[in-house]
Amino acid sequence: DGHRAIMEDAAQTLKLLTNIDDMEVVLRSDVPAAAQPAYSLSQFPATIKMLRVLDPNAPIIFLYSITGVFCNIATLLEGARAIQKGVEGHTGAWYFLRLLSHTNQGVVENSARTLSYIVRTGLAHEEISTRENLQLIAELVSLNMDPKTVNAALTIIVMMLDSPQSDTFFTNIIAHTSIVSSLISMFCHGSDRVVRSRAWTLAHLMQRQSQCTSAVTQALELNRQAIQMRMAQDEEQRRKEAQAHARQQEMFRQMMQQQMGGGGPGMEEE
Q1: How far is the C-alpha of 144 from the C-alpha of 167, rounded, in Å?
Q2: What are 62-86's pLDDT values in tens digits?
Q3: What is the pTM of this model?
Q4: How many whole angstroms separate alpha carbon 242 and alpha carbon 248?
Q5: pLDDT, tens digit, for every residue of 109-162?
Q6: CB neighbourhood size of 203 (10 A)
Q7: DSSP code of 265?
Q8: What gap in Å lies between CA 48 and CA 152, rounded to an integer?
Q9: Interatomic CA distance for residues 223 and 200, integer angstroms
Q10: How distant, in Å, are the alpha carbons of 29, 47, 109, 118, 267 from that of 73?
């Protein structure tokens, strides 16, 4: 209906206005010039009250835009703090945790990234360490998920390595999820190189956690053949890329020599 269309348009406009490049937020306290709309919104109590509209059954277009607005706001330190204060007896993280199992990947990505920003701020560490919430987070580390969503989940786990809640977090994540096998599966079979690298690094960081050492060591041994195959494939890919780069450099060198009148030897046949 007309009312729903207006709501969706308004939410989409807010999302565009608050858009922030996370790479510009070098320090957690940074507020880049382009982030002023998001910062201003975070300072209005009415903005945080909008958490109430994050109903899993809300229209998808609207929900995607609104979660995107909160994701943009949470990129900023003050924004994440404001959101986590929550509303109606619930923390900000609570609203996004229950959206991690949504059927729309865009909604899930926005929610996961928002949570990662809240956790990065040092908040919600105890809240996400429960069995139920850890299962929701661990399920994001899947070959079927968008790389941005997987990255957000990996970031949450990395942030918990140095958390006061790390013992509880890693005890529960080992006991109640299959995160270790998911990380190794991501490394062996994932298509995104950055995500694969992060998953592999995180598996080894977790191996240093006393709660995880045994589980990670066993999983590495169990999947040794698949891991070796992946490493061999990666090495072959690096070799091919290095050769291609060398050929490009040689072509560029010869082109520069010719332009400067130096002639130069012809390209050698392979």
Answers
A1: 29
A2: 999 999 999 989 988 888 999 999 9
A3: 0.81
A4: 10
A5: 999 999 999 999 999 999 999 999 999 999 999 999 999 999 999 999 999 999
A6: 22
A7: P
A8: 22
A9: 13
A10: 13, 10, 15, 10, 54
